[in-house]
Specification:
Number of strands: 36
Radius of gyration: 27 Å
Mean pLDDT: 90
Shape: globular
Distance between the termini: 66 Å
Structural class: alpha+beta
Number of helices: 25
Low-confidence stretches: 11-25
Oligomer: single chain
Length: 795
Amino acid sequence: MKNLKKSLKIVVLVVILLIIGIWSYSKTYNPNYLGEIALKNLSDEVTIYFDDTGVPHINAKNQNDAYIALGYVHAQDRLWQMELIRRIASGRLSEILGSELLKTDVFFSGLGIEEAAEKTIANLDKTSEAYLLSQSYLDGVNQFINEGKTPLEFSLLGIQKENYTIKDIYNVFGYMAFSFAVAHKTDPILTEIKEKLGASYFTELTTSANEYLTINTTEVSEIKGSFSKAVSTIMDHLPVATFIGSNSWVIGGEKTKNGKVIFANDPHIGFSQPSVWYQNHIKTPDFEMYGFNIALMPFPLLGHNKEYAYGLTMLANDDLNFYVEENNPENINQYKSSEGYENYEIIHKTVRIKDAPDTTFQVKVSKHGPIMNGIISHLEDERPIAMNWIYTQLNNEQLDVSYEMSHAKSLIHFKQAVAKIHAPGLNVMYGDAKGNIAWFASAKLYELRDSLSSKTYLNGASGKDEIVTYLPFNENPKAINPSRNYVYSANNQPDSVRGKLYPGYYQPEDRAKRIAKLLDQRNDFTKEDVAKMMYDVKSSTVSEIVEDVLKNLDRRNLSILEKKAINVLENWDGQYLKTSIGATIYNRFLYEFLRATYQDELGTSFPLFINSQLQDQALPIQINRETSVWWDNIHTTSKVENREEIILSSFKNTIKFLESQLGSSIDLWFWKRVISVEHEHVIGKAGGILRSFFNVGPFETIGGNEVINNQIFKLDSTGIYKITSGPSTRRIIDFSDVENSLAILPTGQSGNVFSEHYKDQAQKYLEGKYVKMILNIDELKKSGRKLILIKSKEE
């Protein structure tokens, strides 16, 4: 017995020592929030205060030192994220993650992002402040790479660290630009519909009705104060978040309780772990900015100080077209143009693959862009399809844009900065302490010849489908201090350009309509009102859609359960709360209705179509069409189906499915039973203990597609809705109390799994809560966490 007790004591002691050892070792991976670190190339000491959420507040004597410091602390929290995002555009994911990413690497390396970056960098002004501060930022990143602790992910995957260059920054710009684009998912589907099904099918899908549009109107007043499936699959399986949409509104002082501007912005981006944005606050004698930076970007795309605030949403204009080229039958390395045959540029590429031989391939490039047939596997089109993308075709000034937005001295200066944006198209939002509010549709807009649609493949050989002209920025839609006293954007249709609505891939009016309605209701907004509004989950359109459905539903011969479901839908107010039952019934009905209407014609393209803005735009119009080519099921040759039959069968299938999935008691068909959110880390996707260690969640949540608190999921046959995207941050800047402005991240500030700030904001985010964005230095000193960067003695 004594020996047993002695053995147990030894086992317990070993376990305790093992736990202590693991805990002690894990602490070596923690970011440094305290103490003193020597860095090279500093001209003076830099003090960094870390607040309660891990945000670094950098106090430096000059901007060069500040950006070295930013690079260092950004890397210690987010080096793994930096590594992933820099590898996407250059086609280097397979090198660390294996052959499963080969298709992704071939695709991205063939887009021409790297070649465009090299051309841009060769022509950069190497004496400009934007360039010099970018190099300082990279210096800080690289000093952490060379001197700091290697992140756990690097050790697990056996990744050798490499220093970063300005080209990596431009590769991130390129990846961001492509993930904003929509045409690569939509144009191939529309071309397929038009060519295989006919013009009537195409026209019904692309016809918009003004009663289903909430248009972002142009108004300028005085300034105050001075290939579808393959591409979709690639984008869906990227290990880094993609950019989706966004909300933003800026309320003028005339509509706020305190008489000052209130700025709100929540960009919608794919959920991932780490979170997309890295918060930071820089203060020097001549500069201050509280910014939200993407990995490897030195200057923030979202930011504010005591003078002004800015943010963005996706414009969704059409900046990417596909051209069908015609090869020379005598020479496959030539293509036809209006001037005769021209040579393709041939670019040879190599992709390194972890634990496998390298893969080599070639990309053919016409004057319109790279030929996609060679870089998208299983492209179901024998014709050479060239991708013409404004981002790689025109001069790239994105580094200057991001620098100038964060260093603007006035609204006029800010406008001059955003005028340089060529792609991706952005709705840039602005508000300032002087009372100015503004929205700019910032992109290089263009014209094609009359009647030519950019939403299907264009003719590359004729010379008639080329861009006729690029429009000057002053013709872009915009609003500066409009009479309604607010500006907003929800990726909705912008105002007319040269007498007609500019083509694009705009989101349906749902969020825009709800935002405008709420803003119109009162003139005494506070930041607390805005915070509540950002968490709003009421749809502005589903009640009308449900009403249109039910008035065309044959209610004869319905079961008791089906009649109860009708009663639930009639009384549902369109809110996506955890206990909403109407949300559960409606979304399943939506899938069944779309499947019955479109799947027979679209076949394998159906899953992509029902999760596109095409479907969102077409839905309310389609339900109100008494006659439509889409109603008929092409597989039933003995009859022609009509709207009432489609609606009835879809409704019955909905109730049958939900009864099987959730039970016979309709009172328990809660929304929270079918929807959830999990922030996945690349390594956590492997499952098991790695999932619980690296991932954040899963969680129950509120919200759904196209409400203000936009929780984006895909419709499919499972009836389970896994949220993939949503607000990547929520920010509220109140210029009557700018030092107490609010923000929140979906998980946490740090991407280091051992940091206390890895997921410390997750629960607050789910509950619609916020944390303060501190600007006051005295308040920061109370945090007790101070990191001092000193000049290295080795210099």
